[in-house]
């Protein structure tokens, strides 16, 4: 008997924007990476679960992580024709639907939990309403709109401005919501004319795609600046046919959680729970790589302030009717201000790291261990199969020599030389040393 069916619809969550660029090389790679990220679902929740992914998790990786986590009752299944639209693939797979119905009938308490509550997932869950299966992340029907609205840059900004008028803790960068690229150019030019750098955000982006920063000092004149903004907006489909947020660029204080901390929250019928705070790891283009959580990852003072803000936002989202996971991304400015910059209404890139920490170390995990995750490690120029990768990293696999440290491999791409991992250590210094050892193993 299983307690949970996990639907790892990571690519489906970004379906509309991913399909815009599917015919380009970059777009195809982006889709493949999102499909690979679904493998992180193995670590969601705990034991006694069915994990549905678009493609099967590599079997050697699946079996290894079962042993590491001590899971006794976990299976991984995939639809016969899995791709971006995982929920639709489940709906159209008779065997998989029959499996879900069978499990639901044998366990009235069974839950079905997705990465994101998408339109396609709602169709799937509606078709299963005749059987006893619960989805704790599904808002009431009258509040289904909250999922997409609060995930959008424009919707988030509108709600934060409301909260900022009532709570001094909520700080929002100065900015505008515009309807097309022409307006975006004009607003960015306004910031430039006032000697301020700006950041442009597509209303629905994906892991850093749809974010562009324009530093005022990088351009010799307003005309040069306008040409570069226009060139950027015309160069990528992400900017077309949707609203764009144009905001003042806030200089990060990288000495405080890298300047970009985040907080993940769960909103349930009984209230909100703050799950964890993290330092986000981003590349030079602002794309998400992973997180640092746990012992010494963030200061106590910063954690208290993030929790204060998180409670305000979480309570309001709950009043709107939102249910499920979401995170808040922050910027810590050089003058010490903490700005809210977006929410993501779904599980996030840190959820699997948090769930693994809680499973292995219990509720005191944050005081006992430090964890660092990376979802996009390009280990070599050529792809290796799972057996070879796991053999390569075997000297530092968790638990190293029976101790509570080492690396857990979280995903292995079947298309590219990319893998994901979580490093477990006693403190950040030890964690970074283990990361160096990992890099060195692939240089041998």
Mean pLDDT over the residues: 94
Q: Please write the CATH class name of the largest domain.
A: Alpha Beta
CATH topology of the largest domain: D-amino Acid Aminotransferase, Chain A, domain 1
Give the low-pLDDT segments.
Answer: none
CATH architecture group name of the largest domain: 2-Layer Sandwich
Count of extended strands = 16
Helix/strand-derived class? alpha+beta
Number of domains: 3
What is the tally of helical segments? 15
Principal-axis shape equals: globular
Order of strands side by side in the largest beta sheet?
13-12-9-10-11-14-16-15
The value of Rg in angstroms is: 22 Å
- How much helical structure, as a percent, in the residues? 25-40%
Structure description:
There is one protein chain. The protein is an alpha+beta fold and 444 residues long. It folds into 3 domains: 4-136, no CATH class; 174-248, Dna Ligase, domain 1 (2-Layer Sandwich), CATH 3.30.1490; 257-441, D-amino Acid Aminotransferase, Chain A, domain 1 (2-Layer Sandwich), CATH 3.30.470.20. Helix content is 36%, strand content 24%. It has helices at 15-20, 25-37, 59-69, 86-91, 94-106, 119-127, 145-151, 153-164, 181-193, 222-235, 300-320, 351-361, 365-368, 386-392, 428-441, and strands spanning 4-7, 49-52, 74-77, 111-114, 175-178, 198-206, 209-214, 244-248, 261-268, 271-282, 288-294, 324-332, 338-344, 370-378, 406-412, 418-425. It has an 8-stranded antiparallel β-sheet, sandwiched between helices. A 4-stranded parallel β-sheet has the order 3-2-1-4, covered by helices on one side. It has a 4-stranded antiparallel β-sheet with strand order 5-8-6-7, covered by helices on one side. Helix 9 runs antiparallel to helix 10 (222-235). The longest helix is centred in the C-terminal third of the chain and has 21 residues, at 300-320. The radius of gyration is 22 Å and the shape is globular. The protein starts with a strand and ends with a helix. The relative contact order is 0.12. The mean pLDDT is 94.
